[in-house]
Design brief:
single chain, alpha+beta, four-stranded antiparallel beta sheet, two-stranded antiparallel sheet, 1 helix, about 25% strand, transmembrane helix, Cytochrome C, membrane, transmembrane
Length: about 150
């Protein structure tokens, strides 16, 4: 009977990007590494991890991900797969790649119209305030029921 401590540890992890034939990294487990996305073009990619156990049994894990190193691009006036048949006004904005700040509110620089529900809410609040102001000026409108 073999002692389990004498078994050679030939475990290996190979990491592939997309459909590459050669791995971009090989490690002995466990491993912690940094994936530098600045060297990967923007778009959808897939990380393929092949691990081999001490018994030479392979396991595969596929992890799809998307790289977005470039600026945030916002398009107003045209949605994905939208059918249009007239002249359409489109606003395009790109921002965000030139800053290293950690606090970025995405979409804050887009020129969007104020939603109609906010206008309706403002009109109701203004009308409510105007009603009470008129009632305050004309005290004779108040009647006591007692």
């Amino acid at each position: 009977m073999k002692d389990s401590h004498n078994i050679e540890d030939n475990r290996i992890i190979k990491v592939f990007l997309d459909e590459e034939v050669q791995p971009f990294a090989e490690f002995a487990p466990p491993v912690k590494f940094v994936l530098d996305t600045t060297k990967i073009p923007d778009g959808k990619h897939q990380l393929k991890i092949i691990a081999k156990s001490s018994n030479h049994i392979e396991g595969i894990k596929l992890i799809p991900f998307e790289v977005k190193n470039g600026p945030e691009i916002s398009v107003i006036g045209l949605k994905d797969n939208e059918v249009i048949d007239t002249q359409t006004s489109i606003t395009i904005n790109a921002y965000g790649s030139e800053t290293n700040d950690k606090f970025i509110i995405r979409g804050s620089e887009n020129p969007r119209a104020i939603p109609s529900w906010i206008w309706a809410l403002l009109i109701v609040v203004f009308a409510f305030g105007l009603f009470y102001f008129v009632m305050y000026l004309k005290q004779d409108l108040y009647e006591s029921f007692f």
